[in-house]
Design a protein that fits this description.
The protein has 303 residues and is an all-alpha fold. The protein has helices at residues 2-42, 44-49, 65-96, 101-119, 122-145, 159-183, 187-195, 200-211, 213-229, 232-237, 254-261, 267-302, and strands at residues 53-54, 61-62.
């Protein structure tokens, strides 16, 4: 009877694994099936390196170079801000608060706030960013560019607003995964470091974080995936114009490109939007592959 239950459980696990693998291949096949035709019709170079997006003009142009750059720079900026803040918060929750009652109480409140951040819908982030962050950016914009004849005012909907909102949105992922990884580091490593004369901060940065870097990298990968895949909040705070991704320019990301135009597109325009989705999909796969390689390389070096 026990062996029968184990065989049934093993079969269920095998089926679920097969479903997961088949789903990935099915999505990949569908994206290439729908996204590849426009590449041959428009041309890979004009599509990927063109900087003019005018799909409804008399002579349509489908250049998405600025859109790709906006996604890359926006995601990089969000990770540059969000990962250090998230990692330091995780260190505070795991190793700084200590075992005192006050420390545990503070850690509990901060952990609850982090969980609440994870539960907030994307549209709420976008709404708060639009009502609070964009007006502040507009005031800053007026201070910096007053008297300029070349700057086009965006009302605060710009790349900086998008980066800040994305950085806040990836915090829960980075914090939670980093906390789990840091807590998994054996206490004996900390004790050995302290016994050798290292301070608490030296132990954290020289021993604990390097030992937990594999899990921390996983949090970074998940954070990048969240940043790349976000559409609604960015659509509300970034402005939505296809521009060179400068800090105070209104910009459009790959995801917001799909959200903005898929509902009314048709013909070649719609096919190109599927190509945009394909570019986003390939971009995410490449980043995951590279970070996974770095993670495995780090694990081999540790061994």
């Amino acid at each position: 009877m026990k062996k029968t239950r184990e065989k049934i459980a093993g079969s269920i696990f095998l089926i679920t694994a097969i479903v997961a693998v088949v789903s990935v291949f099915a999505i990949t096949f569908y994206m290439f099936l729908k996204g590849a035709p426009a590449i041959f019709k428009v041309g890979a170079l004009p599509l990927l390196f063109g900087n003019v997006w005018e799909p409804t003009a008399a002579n349509p142009s489908y250049g998405i170079a600025y859109i790709i750059l906006s996604s890359v720079i926006g995601t990089f900026g969000a990770v540059l801000i969000g990962v250090p803040v998230g990692l330091m918060t995780a260190v505070f929750l795991t190793d700084i608060t200590g075992s005192s009652r006050a420390g545990r109480s503070l850690s509990k409140w901060i952990s609850g706030a982090v969980e609440l951040l994870a539960a907030i819908p994307s549209v709420i982030y976008g709404l708060i960013g639009m009502m609070v962050l964009n007006p502040f950016m507009y005031r800053l914009e007026k201070i910096i560019f007053t008297g300029s004849d070349t700057h086009q005012f965006t009302g605060g909907a710009n790349l900086i607003s998008a980066v800040i909102v994305l950085a806040i949105m990836i915090l829960p992922t980075v914090i939670n995964v980093s906390c789990s990884s840091i807590r998994a580091v054996p206490q004996s490593l900390r004790s050995a470091s302290l016994a050798l004369g290292a301070s608490k901060l030296q132990t954290i940065f020289k021993v604990v974080i390097p030992a937990a870097k594999s899990g921390i990298m996983t949090g970074v990968v998940l954070g990048i995936g969240r940043a790349l895949g976000e559409a609604m909040a960015i659509n509300m705070v970034a402005g939505g114009a296809v521009n060179l991704p400068l800090p105070f320019n209104s910009v459009r990301f790959l995801t917001t490109q799909l959200v903005s135009e898929m509902s009314y597109s048709s013909g070649l325009h719609r096919q190109v939007l599927f190509t945009v989705g394909l570019v986003l999909y390939i971009f995410i796969m490449i980043i995951n592959f590279l970070l996974t390689k770095l993670k495995k390389k780090g694990e081999r070096e540790d061994d």
